[in-house]
Amino acid sequence: MPPLENLRIYLAGHTGLVGSALCRRFSRLAGVELIKATRSEIDLTDANAVEKFLYRIRPDIVIIAAGKVGGILANSLYPAEFIYENLAIQANLIHCSWNAGVKRLLNFGSACMYPKECHQPMRPDALMTGKMEPTSEPYAIAKLAGQSLCSSYNRQYGTSYVTAIPCNLYGPGDSFDPADAHVIPALMGKFFKARMEKAESVTLWGDGSARRELLYVEDLAGACELLLRCYEGQDPVNIGSGESHTIREIAKVVAEVVGFQGEMDWDPSGPEGAREKLLDSSELRGLGWFPSTGLKTGLEQTYRWFRENCKV
């Protein structure tokens, strides 16, 4: 596997949570030319535009951090956009990368690709063995298609296109819009608003017993660098912290970081997604990667970014 230095890397989706962390990571590598383009510069759902762009820049590596993402509410409201946009972006970037002679590509899946009822911790060989959680199914199907595209091009054309499947991510650059937010920014935004309004309580969805595995996004970026340097396999690779927490436990720590001291009222009628999602990340552990950021430390750094960058 060649070193990453002195390579041209095109990072699609450089302004999002994952993309911005990857920007910070790869910008520090000597000799790496990191290529970025805004939505106004290239529409990734337009195959002709993507093909022309890749032929012009001729990258050595393509990283697909672009896509439509969101939490339970967004997935419920916009299922058509979630499946169409993600299918289009992945299909265009993967196919056009092959056309342009790109041999190395990093694609991102999601833990919601796994069946709703799945043995824990979840292994890649469990993909497509059962029904997915209904709320996130359109997004999950698009991500499964992206993973299948990568493996199909590898099998037929000898490329090295890998799909990384991260657990729930959080950190600087996350979306705190209530319509799009995942669990950490959703909780953080609710608790902050309640603290500012001196509210005595906050209502949260579910009963708080569902479990989630969380990973600070800077740790994800380190795992991605290692994959691009060292991983030569064909199967998708899980990236997780290795431990899960109940939503109730997570909410308690977030409230502490934000400084909200009121009550938490749980609404069991609200959506809460899959009961548990814990990834088996033994493949990545075998390459020598371990996360270095504890939950509270990561939440404190995320909250600091939220206060400095979000209008509140």
Q: How far apart lie the N and C ends?
A: 46 Å
β-strand number: 12
CATH class label of one domain: Alpha Beta
Structure classification: alpha/beta
Secondary-structure element string = EHEHEHHEHEEHEEHEEHEEHH
Give me the CATH superfamily of one domain: NAD(P)-binding Rossmann-like Domain
Strand order across the largest sheet: 2-1-3-4-5-9
In the CATH classification, which architecture of one domain applies? 3-Layer(aba) Sandwich
Compute the average pLDDT: 93
**Number of helix segments?**
10
How would you portray this structure in words?
- The chain is of the alpha/beta class and 312 residues long.
- It has a domain at 8-173 and 216-241 and 276-292: Rossmann fold.
- It has helices at 17-27, 47-57, 72-77, 79-99, 137-157, 183-196, 217-230, 247-258, 282-286, 295-309, and strands at residues 8-12, 33-35, 61-64, 104-108, 160-166, 168-170, 201-205, 211-216, 237-239, 244-246, 263-267, 276-277.
- The strands form 3 sheets. Strands 2-1-3-4-5-9 form a 6-stranded parallel β-sheet, with helices on both faces. Strands 6, 8, 10 and 12 form a 4-stranded mixed β-sheet that branches. The protein has a two-stranded parallel ribbon with strand order 7-11.
- β4 (104-108), α5 (137-157) and β5 (160-166) form a beta-alpha-beta unit.
- α4 packs parallel to α5 (137-157) and α8 (247-258) packs across α10.
- The radius of gyration is 19 Å and the shape is globular.
- The model has no long low-confidence stretch (mean pLDDT 93).
